[in-house]
Amino acid sequence: MEEAKERVIQKADELFRMYGLRSVTMDDLARALAMSKRTLYQLFKDKRELVKEAISCKMEEDYCVVEEARKKAQNAIEEIVLIFQHFRTVIATLKPTFLYELERYFPEAWQFFHQYKNEVIREQVERNLKRGIAEGVYRSDIRPDILAAMRVEQVFIVFNPQVFPPEKFHFVEVQEELLKHFIYGVLSEKGLQLVKQYEEEGKLWLNK
């Protein structure tokens, strides 16, 4: 049962990202999986439940990616860049209206996502800022709690079509620009020298 649910969630996530949450029906999913609708509804009560579980599964996966980057990175700068290198792939495959549709048509899944964003993601960013201060690569006079909240909102404002119309702005390019602005704003002199070193070595920077 669990293996079958995982298979459905994986395919649903793929289709939701490609075509949008609202456009993909349970019929579409059943056909894509070569599975009967009866079997699909035995696994998930309805589409709302499926969307919520797909979001939950993705959040868990992203959390593991962030934790792995934190352990692997030699410093806070490397950590945040490694994380972005993962998320730029996610962003590149995401339909522009994804979050809008999530909020409007799937309130339970949206509430879960909204809480995760404001608690877990914000805590991860704040922890990175505190690490950078301790390592001396970020300025000691910054407020990690304030900047973490700002950074999280920066990430998701890109999906607001009134601010960044998708026909005019590319998601990944906007995210890169905002991240560069954020990082350079918190760097200490030591951190700035480290970033320059990374750029000269052609590794671990945003366009790599």
Describe this protein's structure:
With 208 residues, the chain is an all-alpha fold. It has a single domain, classed as Tetracycline Repressor, domain 2, CATH 1.10.357. The protein contains ten helices and no strands. The protein is elongated.
SSE blueprint:
Elements: H1 2-19, H2 26-33, H3 37-43, H4 47-72, H5 76-92, H6 98-105, H7 107-135, H8 144-157, H9 171-186, H10 189-201
Helix pairs in contact: 1-4, 4-5, 4-7, 5-7, 5-9, 6-7, 7-8
In CATH terms, what is the fold-level topology? Tetracycline Repressor, domain 2
Beta-strand residue percentage: under 5%
The fourth-level CATH homologous superfamily is Tetracycline Repressor, domain 2
Low-confidence stretches: none
The helix tally amounts to 10
CATH class: Mainly Alpha
- Helix content class: over 70%
Overall geometric form: elongated
Short structural summary:
It is built from ten helices and no strands.
Features:
208 residues, mainly alpha, Tetracycline Repressor, domain 2, 0% strand, elongated
